[in-house]
Design brief:
The chain is α/β, with parallel strands linked by helices. It has a domain of 191 residues: Rossmann fold (3-Layer(aba) Sandwich), CATH 3.40.50. 54% of the residues lie in helices and 10% in strands. The protein is built from 19 helices and eight strands. The protein is globular. The chain binds Double cubane cluster.
């Protein structure tokens, strides 16, 4: 066992509180993941990564810093990882998925703020996340109101750069986002002392693109009946994609897919062919938020897709062809990022179309719309989602929850009733 305490001390973590967090994780992980039957062997790697969540990967980041590199934290898929990589820095998605850090946030932020915002902010003020501590600065974005106001406060605790994200998918919105990308490029070059060139950006985009393609491949495999991987495991893989080394991660996801291809060939699945197939759509589920998937799958459903930023909104859109110049590449990155159909956009009809396509092509029996409490964008958009699904006779269950366990019993009852109704 490696002793990471000197590293955590160097990162100025609150060691006592951090110990409490680390003590809670293994039990939760074991009861959620390791009790699943017939798991693919290639999930061993992802179990290992979670086991080392505050250890080995953080050490890699610290080694990178010791060699003169920078680490950049992010909270949203609108922030292009490839631009950060092209400056020789490591992008890392920050912890934002647990109730553990919420009380620290509530000492500062209003309680009626979404759990994702409170959890991420609480990790910083409580000094319990080694990733934010290791980051030289974080990049926020003007997506929802809660986040953008939180970043103003976060800037008092940690260096923070905020990118403006347009609210509309118009040519003017694209111009604005492109200007923000240029500003981010200048910021990254100033922080790292490295030039972002056409070559370094092309290489970085290729690495991120390979990761997205591997995730798309995994997602496509979930069309199979019976499905060869649980929704919990697939969600975990996507969650890990935000902080693992992209090249190693891509190899491991492709190895997992190879194994799943063999399983499919033999007709092997993790659930019976008649298990209700569910698409989950809505707010992202940052690690270790496994609450809804666990309830659904323990109740006998199998989750075959996530229309979410810890799902298709992260990996579905690839960078369009361009002339390879720096200007051309930045334009293509702007186009790619603006295909992220986040509920912060108005209008956002493309997201509804995506949900209908996923429901049809992944042959789902029902959709669960998931919004975090106090997330007004996704909760309001659920009205349009409900109408569109009703027109296609696709059953929908709307869930609004947070990271706490208090409502698990009630959610289970609602999920059971829904599954009873949609069971094929
Ligand atoms: S691109 S979904 S990752 S903003 S759940 S904090 S919207 S109140 S997370 Fe998101 Fe980027 Fe959009 Fe995706 Fe606000 Fe809602 Fe909370 Fe949210």
């Amino acid at each position: 066992m490696v002793d990471y305490r000197p590293m955590w001390t160097e990162l100025d973590l609150d060691l006592e509180k951090h110990d409490m967090l680390l003590q809670a994780l293994p039990g939760m992980y074991e009861s959620t993941f390791l009790t699943q039957e017939n798991r693919p062997e290639a999930m061993d790697y992802f179990d290992f990564v979670v086991g080392e969540i505050h250890g080995l990967r953080v050490k890699e980041l610290m080694d990178h810093k010791a060699a003169g590199g920078k680490v950049v934290g992010l909270y949203c898929v609108f922030v292009p990882e490839d631009l950060i990589l092209a400056a020789g820095a490591i992008p890392v998605g920050l912890c934002a998925g647990t109730q553990f850090s919420v009380p620290d946030a509530e000492d500062v932020l209003p309680r009626n703020t979404c759990a994702l915002i409170k959890s991420s902010f609480g990790f910083k003020v409580g000094r319990t996340c080694p990733y934010v501590q290791a980051s030289d600065f974080v990049i926020g974005e003007t997506t929802c109101d809660g986040k953008k106001k939180m970043y103003e406060i976060l800037a008092g605790y940690h260096p923070t750069h905020v990118m403006e994200v347009p609210q509309k998918k118009t040519p003017l919105g694209r111009e604005l986002f492109l200007a923000e990308l240029r500003g981010l490029r200048a910021k990254l070059e100033a922080e790292t002392g490295m030039d972002i060139t056409a070559d370094s950006l092309a290489q970085a985009t290729a690495a991120i693109e390979a990761k997205r393609r591997a995730l798309k491949r995994l997602h496509a495999i979930r069309k199979a009946r019976p499905v060869p991987i649980s929704g919990l495991d697939a969600l975990l893989v996507t969650q890990i994609s935000f902080y693992d080394d992209p090249v190693r991660f891509t190899e491991k996801v492709n190895a997992l897919c190879d194994e799943l291809d063999v399983r499919m060939g033999k007709g092997e699945g993790v659930a019976t062919a008649d298990a209700p197939r569910v698409l989950v759509s809505g707010s992202p589920m940052a690690i270790p938020n496994w609450k809804l998937h666990r309830i659904l799958e323990e109740s006998g459903a199998v989750v075959v897709g996530e229309e979410s930023c810890t799902g298709t909104r992260y990996f579905d859109y690839l960078t369009p062809e361009n002339d390879g110049s720096l200007t051309g590449q930045l334009g293509a990155i702007a186009d790619r990022q603006l295909e992220t159909h986040c509920a912060c956009f108005t209008p956002n009809d493309e997201r509804i179309e995506d949900i209908l396509t996923l429901a049809r092509e992944w042959a789902v029996d029902g959709v669960v719309h998931y919004s975090l409490q106090f997330c007004h964008t996704f909760a309001n958009e659920a009205v349009k989602v409900e109408k569109a699904l009703a027109e296609q006779d696709i059953p929908l269950l709307r869930i609004e929850t947070d990271y706490g366990d208090e409502d698990v019993g009630q959610l289970k009852t609602r999920v059971d009733a829904f599954l009873e109704m949609i069971r094929p």
